[in-house]
């Protein structure tokens, strides 16, 4: 990744996308494979614990629809409803009050921030995510979650257009659409919209760019 991250002073936050039961649990309506789900949950839990220990704020964004009509107003989702497409069950996905809207155990902890009401792939669309990040003074996003080639990609693109620096944490993202589209999305992001790093290296990348971490009392390893 080399050199600075394009900002005078790096002020990072983790943004997790849809690490909820609707994708990652046995009751999921748009499920990842069981092995992929366990891997990405475990990777995120470890990464988030380390981020908190280093004083990096954590913001979770969760999809939730009030009605099926909110889902069906998207022409593509309406067209594929009931088919064998990976998103063919969208009409039943993460409706208000459903178990799918709950974050997976171990993902959220006291002090994390939650942004709800995400209804499209772009986490900024019709949510207060941008307000939350600006209020924290953040200029660099460490992006994790599901799905790599839809919500992660769309959110990273929009974040880039809003002049946030973006680093996608490669071992902490996954997709229902398979490894080819996962890798293609990461390649697209790394070529045009930000950086891609793994969870072992990303804090060193921040330090090389001038970030001064603040270890949180009570979270020392």
Structure overview:
By secondary structure, this protein is α/β, with parallel strands linked by helices. The chain has one domain (12-208): Rossmann fold (3-Layer(aba) Sandwich), CATH 3.40.50. The protein is 35% helix and 17% strand. It is built from 8 helices and 6 strands, in the order E-H-H-E-H-H-E-H-E-H-E-H-E-H. It has a 6-stranded parallel sheet with strand order 3-2-1-4-5-6, sandwiched between helices. Helix 6 packs parallel to helix 7 (179-192). It is globular. The protein starts with 11 loop residues before the first strand and ends in a 13-residue tail after the last helix. The model has no long low-confidence stretch (mean pLDDT 96).
* Distinct helical segment count: 8
Assigned CATH superfamily: Isochorismatase-like
Q: In the residues, how many domains can be counted? A: 1
Q: Write down how many β-strands occur, each being a DSSP E stretch of 2 or more residues.
A: 6
Provide the helix percentage. Answer: 25-40%
State the name of the first-level CATH class.
Alpha Beta
Shape: globular
Which stretches of 5+ consecutive residues score pLDDT under 50?
none
CATH architecture: 3-Layer(aba) Sandwich
Mean pLDDT: 96
């Amino acid at each position: 990744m080399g050199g600075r991250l394009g900002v005078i002073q790096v002020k990072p936050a983790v943004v997790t996308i849809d690490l909820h039961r609707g994708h990652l649990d046995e009751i999921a309506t748009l499920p990842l494979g069981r092995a992929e789900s366990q891997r990405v949950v475990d990777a995120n839990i470890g990464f988030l614990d380390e981020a908190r220990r280093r004083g990096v704020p954590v913001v979770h964004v969760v999809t939730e629809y009030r009605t099926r009509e909110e889902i069906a107003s998207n022409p593509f989702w309406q067209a594929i409803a009931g088919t064998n497409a990976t998103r063919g069950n969208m009409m039943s996905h993460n409706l208000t009050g459903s178990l799918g809207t709950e974050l997976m155990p171990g993902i959220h902890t006291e002090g994390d921030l939650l942004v709800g009401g995400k209804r499209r792939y772009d986490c900024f669309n019709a949510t207060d995510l941008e307000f939350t990040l600006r209020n924290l003074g953040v200029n660099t996003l460490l992006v994790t979650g599901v799905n790599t080639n839809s919500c992660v990609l769309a959110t990273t693109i929009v974040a880039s257009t809003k002049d946030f620096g973006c680093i996608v944490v490669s071992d902490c993202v996954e997709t229902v659409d398979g490894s080819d589209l996962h890798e293609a999305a990461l390649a697209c992001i790394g070529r045009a919209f930000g950086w891609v790093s793994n969870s072992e290296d990303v804090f060193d990348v921040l330090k090389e760019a001038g970030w001064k971490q603040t270890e949180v009392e009570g979270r020392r390893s």
